[in-house]
């Protein structure tokens, strides 16, 4: 409860800090001024704020000047100039806060981040860090008590339990440390269990549950029996190592987390990879080839299959892993169309591969953005729809589907207006008909089509009458 109150107080102080101005609010503008005089009054107030050093308030006054005189050159130039200064100052304070944050000096870091937000309230990274502190607190399911040993640091503990040294700040925040560097041997530290983040521990370590959490909820806790070191050989990947040691290449993400690697990392020959033996999972330390699948069956109690079936299954897994690795590489290189092909090949062998499904959705979405940028809005819509098929929870997919259709109709509707104004009635009809086919109720397109159709028929009638007169 004390930690939650502390977090709320932090966020509340952040809101106050960002919202407070360094100077009193400006007096309201005089009402009996002409447009040009009122714009000049706002510009003058902006300069006063500049002289006082309150650049944020100065920008606001220049913007007010633009509301009454949109072409005011002084306001336009000074907004650009001051925004550049403010963004630079915001970034300077953010970088300073990051230095403090990485050292574990959280009070000084927080002040620097809040200053960065004062200069730029939309600074994404400063906002993200302040928000993450709150999210970590809300998702804690329990903790593991650990006594600090000689030469041990918070970063060492973060690497041991989370597989990520950067998460040392989670431990420091949970233990309400003002400075994570000031720990001593013999000090007890609580390592929080955070929902959604893998937590590696040895089988003899005990977890204390928090609140109403139950052991059944700790699905992210991974009990390690031991770990071996694997030397990477040619053509090996995380997927292939997961297949070799666990009998399931989908566990490649676990290896990535345990070794502090990104999931799409390409392994180098000779690189050392730690492979943990996990309680409740098959582990094939010395087996290879077709025997791997057999070992998995013995450990899990799965039905025995024939050697021929084992060989086919293993070949399918290896081929799927190969295509999935290729797809990840292509995605990283932003070759989304080729990545789509590779992920589809993976799904042909393993239809339920969660990673391929996730990246296939992302690839279609990125391809949709490319088409949208090329103004091929229907092709973009089709890609966003495919992305939604693979990820039903993609809110952005639905947003961009609607945006693609809306933009498509708007573009063709306006083209129709231009053609109609230029008396190119047939072209106007063609453009408006495209809009009508998608949404007959879009603006007044139905009436516009009716109108242009009547005009075309009249013109055709006049042409026919004139041709008959010429014949006579």
Features:
flat; 472 residues; 4 domains; 62% helix; 3-stranded mixed beta sheet; Membrane-bound Lytic Murein Transglycosylase D, Chain A; 3-stranded antiparallel beta sheet; mainly alpha
Describe the structure.
Helix 3 (55-68) runs antiparallel to helix 4. Helix content is 62%, strand content 8%. The chain folds into four domains: 2-103, Serine Threonine Protein Phosphatase 5, Tetratricopeptide repeat (Alpha Horseshoe); 139-215, Roll (Membrane-bound Lytic Murein Transglycosylase D, Chain A), CATH 3.10.350; 221-304, Membrane-bound Lytic Murein Transglycosylase D, Chain A; 398-472. The chain has 472 residues and is mainly alpha-helical. Residues 1-23 and 287-312 have low confidence and may be disordered. The protein has 18 helices and six strands. The strands form two sheets. A three-stranded antiparallel sheet has the order 2-1-4. A three-stranded mixed sheet has the order 3-5-6, covered by helices on one side.
Short description:
By secondary structure, the chain is mainly alpha-helical. Helices cover 62% and strands 8% of the residues.
How would the blueprint of this fold be written?
Layout: H1 2-19, H2 35-52, H3 55-68, H4 73-103, H5 106-119, H6 124-138, E1 140-147, H7 154-162, H8 168-174, E2 188-194, E3 199-202, E4 208-209, E5 221-231, H9 238-246, H10 252-258, E6 272-278, H11 291-300, H12 307-332, H13 336-349, H14 354-373, H15 377-390, H16 395-421, H17 425-438, H18 445-471
Mean pLDDT: 79
Indicate the CATH topology of the largest domain.
Serine Threonine Protein Phosphatase 5, Tetratricopeptide repeat
Please report the total strand number as a whole number: 6
Q: Any low-confidence stretches, pLDDT <50, length ≥5?
A: 1-23, 287-312
How far the N terminus sits from the C terminus, by CA atoms, comes to 100 Å
Portion of residues in beta strands equals 5-15%
Helix content: 55-70%
Strand order of the largest sheet: 2-1-4
Main beta sheet: strand number and arrangement?
3 strands, antiparallel
């Amino acid at each position: 409860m004390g930690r939650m109150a502390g977090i709320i107080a932090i966020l509340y102080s952040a809101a106050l800090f960002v919202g407070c101005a360094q100077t009193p609010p400006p007096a309201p503008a005089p009402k009996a001024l002409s447009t040009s005089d009122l714009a000049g009054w706002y510009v003058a107030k902006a300069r006063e704020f500049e002289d006082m050093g309150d650049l944020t308030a100065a920008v606001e006054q220049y913007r007010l000047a633009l509301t009454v005189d949109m072409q005011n050159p002084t306001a336009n130039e000074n907004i650009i100039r001051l925004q550049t200064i403010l963004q630079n100052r915001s970034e300077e304070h953010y970088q300073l806060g990051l230095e403090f944050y990485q050292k574990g000096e959280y009070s000084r870091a927080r002040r620097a981040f809040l200053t960065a937000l004062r200069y730029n309230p939309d600074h994404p990274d400063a906002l993200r860090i302040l928000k993450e502190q709150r999210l970590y607190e809300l998702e804690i399911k329990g903790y593991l008590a650990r006594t600090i040993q000689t030469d041990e640091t918070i970063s060492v503990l973060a690497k041991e339990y989370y597989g990520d040294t950067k998460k040392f700040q989670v431990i420091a925040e949970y233990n309400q440390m003002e400075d994570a560097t000031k720990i001593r041997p013999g000090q007890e530290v609580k390592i929080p269990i955070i929902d959604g983040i893998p937590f590696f521990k040895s089988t003899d370590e005990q977890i204390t549950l928090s609140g109403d959490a139950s052991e059944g909820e700790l699905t992210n806790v991974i009990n390690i029996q031991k770990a071996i070191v694997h030397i990477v050989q040619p053509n090996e990947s995380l997927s292939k190592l997961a297949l070799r040691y666990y009998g399931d290449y989908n566990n490649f993400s676990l290896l990535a987390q345990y070794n502090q690697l990104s999931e799409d990392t390409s392994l180098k020959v000779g690189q050392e990879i730690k492979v943990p033996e996990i309680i409740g999972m098959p582990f094939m330390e010395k087996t290879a080839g077709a025997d791997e699948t057999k070992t998995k069956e013995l450990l899990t109690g799965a039905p025995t299959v024939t050697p021929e079936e084992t060989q086919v299954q293993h070949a399918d897994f290896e081929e799927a892993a190969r295509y999935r690795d290729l797809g990840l590489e292509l995605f990283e290189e932003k070759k989304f169309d080729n990545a789509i092909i590779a992920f589809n090949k993976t799904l042909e062998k393993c239809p339920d591969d969660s990673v391929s499904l996730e990246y296939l959705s992302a690839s279609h979405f990125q391809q949709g953005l490319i088409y949208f940028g090329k103004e091929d809005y229907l092709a973009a819509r089709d890609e966003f729809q495919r992305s939604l098929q693979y990820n039903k929870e993609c809110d952005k997919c639905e947003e961009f589907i609607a945006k693609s259709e809306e933009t498509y109709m708007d573009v063709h509707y306006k083209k129709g207006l231009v053609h109609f104004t230029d008396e190119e009635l047939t072209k106007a009809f063609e453009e408006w008909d495209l809009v009508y086919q998608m949404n007959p109720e879009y603006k007044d397109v139905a009436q516009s089509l009716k109108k242009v159709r009547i005009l075309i028929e009249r013109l055709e009638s006049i042409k026919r009458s004139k041709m008959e007169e010429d014949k006579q």
